[in-house]
Structures are given as C-alpha cells and as structure tokens.
Amino acid sequence: MYLEKFHIKNFRGIKDIELAFNKGLNVLIGENNAGKTTIIDALRICLSYGNQRRDMYVSLSDFHINKETIIEQLNDIEFHLHFHIELPDEAGWFNDLLSVQEDGTQDLQLHFRYYLDENERVKYKVWGGSNEGQVIAPEVLFLIYHVHLDALRDAEQYLKPIRGNRLGQLYSNIQIDPDRATDIEKKKDLAKKVRTAVDSDAEWVGHVSKGKEKINEHLKETSFTDKQQQVDISFLPFDFNRLVDNLKIQMPVYSDGLLAGDETKQRHFELYQNGLGYNNLIYTATVLGDLKQRKELQKESYAALLIEEPEAHLHPQLQNLFFNHLNKLDSELGFQIFISSHSPTITAKANLKSVIVLQNQGNKIHAVTLNKSGLTEENKKHLHKFLDVTKSQIFFSNGAILVEGISEALLMPIFSKMLGDEYNIEKAGIELVNINGVAFEHFANLFNNEDEAKNLKTRCSLITDDDTEFETDEIASRAKIASELAKKNLKVFLAKRTFEFELFIAGNNEILLEIYTEMHPISASRIVSNADIKVHANNFLEKVIANKAKSELAHRLAVKLSSDATVRGRFIVPDYIKQAIKYATKGE
After folding, report:
1. Domain end marker among 339, 359, 379
2. Is residue 447 located within the same domain as residue 573?
3. 232 by DSSP, 3-state: which?
4. Contact of 556 with 518, CB cutoff 8 Å
5. Is residue 403 within 8 Å of 443, Cβ to Cβ?
C-alpha cells in the first residue's frame, strides 16, 4: 500500500490543500514559504501516531490564522490520509482503516481532527475508515511508521556508537533465521560467542581484574560491614541489541590493491574526519538499508522516509548521483519517500512524474502534482530531457516568460528594467526561459489547462516571431499554432516578422545600424535605405541573417543599453514586448 491522497486543513500556513502522491518517490518543490516543511511535519504527526517515541505534536501555534480577516475562533486542524490498496491482504491487515465506496472500490483511511477546548487546550480525535468514531487498534497503528531526516541533521551524532543509533538498528533488524523465535535465540548465542571470545583471553581478563580490584578496594572501605558494595567490570554487554549499538563506522585509508591482502596494515578515518556531505550520504544509505530490509521482513507494514532539503549537504554533482540512485530505487523500494527541496539541480534530475510543485500565491498555498497536470506523456518526456538547472527554475518562480532564442533572452531583463522597477522581472521573481526553438507546447501545458487545478498558479507570457512573409504578409503556420496556446494563465505575444525587425521599426533603426556598422562595416554600407521603415528594416534584416549576426547584435545592444545612459534614453521598447512583460509581472 502507499499514501495516495493527503488532505490538510487549517494547519499553520495551509488553509486547505489536497495532495496527490505517487508510489515510491515524491519530490515537494517550491519557493520559500510555500508549505514544504509544513507538509513534511504534517506527515510526521500522522505517521508517528502509533509510535510511543513521537517527536511531533500539535500545539496552539499550529492552528491556521487567516491573514485576510480577523477571526476570534480558530478552525479545527484536520488531516485525512487515503492509502491505496495494492495487495488483497492489506485490507485484512489494516481492517480498522478500511473504507468501501458505493461503487465497491476500497481504500484505507486514517483521519485526525485537532480542536481547542474552552481553555485553549489542544484536544484530538483519531479514527479509521469512512465513519468518524471507528476505533483503531494500537497494533494496527504500530504498523505505520516513518524515518525523518531534517535539513540540519547531524549525521555524525546519529551514527555514534550509542544506544538506539541508526547503525545499531540496522544490525538489530537483520535476521539470522527466518523464524522469529529461532532468530532471537541465535542472536543471543552470537552475542555469547563474542563475549566468550573476549573473556577467554587471559591477559585481557587479568587487566580488567586489576581495575576492578582498585575500585572495590575503596568501596570496601566506604561501605558498612553488613552492606558491602562491590562492582563487576564487563567490556561487552550480554544483550545482542546493545552489542550492535557499539558498532562504529570508519573509512578505510588504503585501497585493497595497495594493501596486497595484508589487512593488518589498514588504517581508518573517523567520521569527524570526513566531510559533512559524505557523512550525510553514509547516514542516508544506512537509513535506506534499514528501511528496505525492515519492509521486506514486515511486508504488512507501511513505511515512509521523509528527507528535508538534501541539497543542504551535497554539491550539485553529488545531488545528481543521489537522485539518480533514488530514481532507480523508485520501483523496488517497498516504502514511500517524500523529499522537500528548493534546489533546481534536484528538480532537473527528478523524474517529473514524482514532482509536486507548491506555490504561495495571494497568501494561499496551492499544489500541482505534475503526474496529474495538463502535461501529456510527450510533454513529460521532452521536459525531462530538456530541463536543466536554469530552466527548472520555472517551478520556483512568480511567473514565466518563454522566448525562442538567445537574442530575446539577452535583452528581456534589460527591457524590463527600462519599464520601471515594478516591471523588473528579476525583482518580480519572473523566470525567463529560453526554449532554443519553437517547441512551446511542452511548457505551455503547465499554464493553459481549462481545469485550473492542473495549472501552475502563475502567469506565463510566450514571446515568439510570427515569421510573416514580407511579400504576402501571411504569418507562418507554426506562429498560428503558438497563438492557439493562449488560454487561461498563458498569453501569446507575436513579433511582426522577427524580433530584430520589431526592434528596428519601433524607432531604434539608428542605434541598430550604428551597432551593426561596428560589427560589419562593409555589409552595413550595402544596406539600402528606404523611406518606408518596414522596407528599410527588411533590408537590414537580410544582411543580419546573411552574416549570422543575430546573437552578436543582441549582445552588443545589451551592453550599450546597460552601460550607456544616452543610448538607453533614446531606445524604444516595442509594444508587444512591453505587453508581455507587464502581463507576466502584474497581470496587466
């Protein structure tokens, strides 16, 4: 089974949100304050309810406060979990959670409601299935558990050889014998053999005895005659679990090839001598190993791994490696993984089917599961190959502007600053995405679905050329296709003919001719001037295209506009560019 749907109401910054999760890996991404930690903490509260050693509880400060209206009474916090049944036996194992719908379909439901009494003390109700009040047996709740790795985790501390450490748990859960009763006895025998091996060394036993004698010598003198106190000294515990708690992780210094089979020459680094990032990888690998084998042994249980901001400890290349491994494990884990992140590197590497985008717009948190968005399978395949660290930042932005080439990408930030601070795309958090072509549909379907639940809750401007034939004045078919993408949160802005043509006819012909003359003086001298600005622009464009000078022209124009206030004052931003920037930033 796996958690398929999670409904949260009135918890911290979340008023009401319903999340659709995938089996295996789930990656929660979004800007700061978009609810990632809130959702992880909600999962921790719910999935640890059957554990006696819980570390998360609901308090008064967790109740949602509406920022738009003053209210006297806080509404109840609600968590509703719906688990998908994969095996028929799960309906029996979790019978207390079973819910049967009118059409005969079944799922497993776990519900929580937290409310305040007249003294503002937090009270709660927990039930299973569809009907409030359905009691859940403790042994059923015990089968639901999780492991949480927070963003500021101290891996070295968690791996120290102390009671209950993660490495000790891993070895405690490894079965020696498939029969549980026999396994317990064999572990006792194994612990006894280890103790016997140490205690059989006479020199060691003698050394321990000397220390014991010195302690008991003073105890004898400080104890009453009829209440004598004495101690015994033991190097290793008798209990198997306490024995494995004393195991420690070390990193070998020399390679096997260098040792040539002589392990006596091996030396080791301690964890504190290792880097923080690698220690966290070791710790995460230990947790993954423990969870995987525990799930294999307890097939009837539900397990989850919650990881907050793995990028906090890993440089980009290690993030790639880490996520590639998780993507491979996705189908064979046996437990669900929930990761929160605001790393574009991780987003670019994650399978889009596992990504859930969180956005905070208008003081309301929204969630879009990309696997259930308006993206087609073809869109997902294209984006998975096409998304790099830069383009994946679209999921963290307050809006997007899609352009087809490097020329627009170079100049759009400068144009936005020229329109004033309120339209500055950098300050507005607008992501500029260079499509490097005209395959806009794959991105457009993130914004233009008739079903708003499938859209990102931000605006998108699509800027492209209409490639009008100069003689016929007919726009290109691919421009018509782009225009048809304009729906809902996406608007299309077409350049007459090309971007450079529009810059020229907007009144910037002298500036562009000056720059082009610096680049190609001979070619510039052959541009036929004409009283008709459009004919002049067409002559200019033909020379620019013939010399493959579009990107260089844009680069030099960007430098002049950035460094020369006089040129910037003379320059006129074309209307369609103004409209695109104003829509993306302000919705105008």
Report:
1. 359
2. yes
3. coil
4. yes
5. no
Is 260 part of a structural domain of the chain? no
Pairing of strands 14-20, 2-11: antiparallel
How would you classify the pairing of strands 302-308 and 336-341? parallel
Which of 447, 488, 487, 463 is CA-nearest to residue 578?
463
Residue 46 has phi, psi (to 5 degrees) of -75, -45
Which of 550, 543, 537, 548 lies closest to 523, judged by CA? Answer: 543
Evaluate whether residue 273 is within a structural domain: no
Residues 61, 202 within the same domain: no
Half-sphere exposure of 46 (CA within 13 A, CB side): 29
Q: Is-contact 253 266, C-beta < 8 A?
A: yes
The beta strands (E) that lie in 320-369 are given as 336-341, 355-361, 364-369
Domain presence at residue 368? no
Tell me the C-alpha distance between 446 and 456, whole Å.
Answer: 6
**525 and 405 fall within a common domain:** yes
For 578, phi then psi, to 5°, come to -55, -45
Decide: residue 124, CB within 10 A, 0-12 exposed, 13-18 middle, 19+ buried.
middle
Instruction: Return the beta strands (E) in 58-206 as ranges.
Output: 77-84, 98-100, 106-116, 122-128, 144-149
Token pair recorded at residue 439:
């395959």
Residues 222 and 150 in one domain: no
Distance CA 529, CA 515 (A): 16
For residue 513, give both structure tokens: 């001719």
Can you read off the two tokens belonging to residue 365?
């948190």
Residue identified by tokens 């539900």 is 302
Domain range for residue 97?
Answer: 2-160+278-359
Q: State the Cα–Cα distance between residues 79 and 17, nearest whole angstrom.
A: 10
In contact, 244 and 168? CB cutoff 8 Å: yes
Residue 382 lies in a domain: no
For residues 183 and 140, membership in a common domain is answered with no
- Cβ pair 266, 255 in contact under 8 A: no
CA distance 26 to 369: 9
Number of domains in the chain: 3
What distances in angstroms separate CA 165 from CA 159, 169, 200, 241, 376, one per listed residue? 6, 6, 29, 11, 45
In this structure, what CATH number is given to the domain that contains residue 100? 3.40.50.300
Could you give the dihedral angle defined by the CA atoms of residues 324, 325, 329 and 333, in that order, rounded to the nearest 10 degrees? -130
pLDDT along the chain (588 residues), means of 10: 96 95 92 92 95 86 85 89 94 94 93 94 95 93 90 69 76 79 85 83 86 82 74 75 79 81 80 72 81 81 90 76 73 81 83 91 90 91 81 91 95 97 96 91 95 94 90 83 95 95 96 96 94 94 95 96 95 98 95
Partners of residue 514 on adjacent β-strands: none
- Cβ pair 559, 375 in contact under 8 A: no
Task: Please tell me the pTM assigned to this model.
Answer: 0.82
Together in a domain, 187 and 155: no
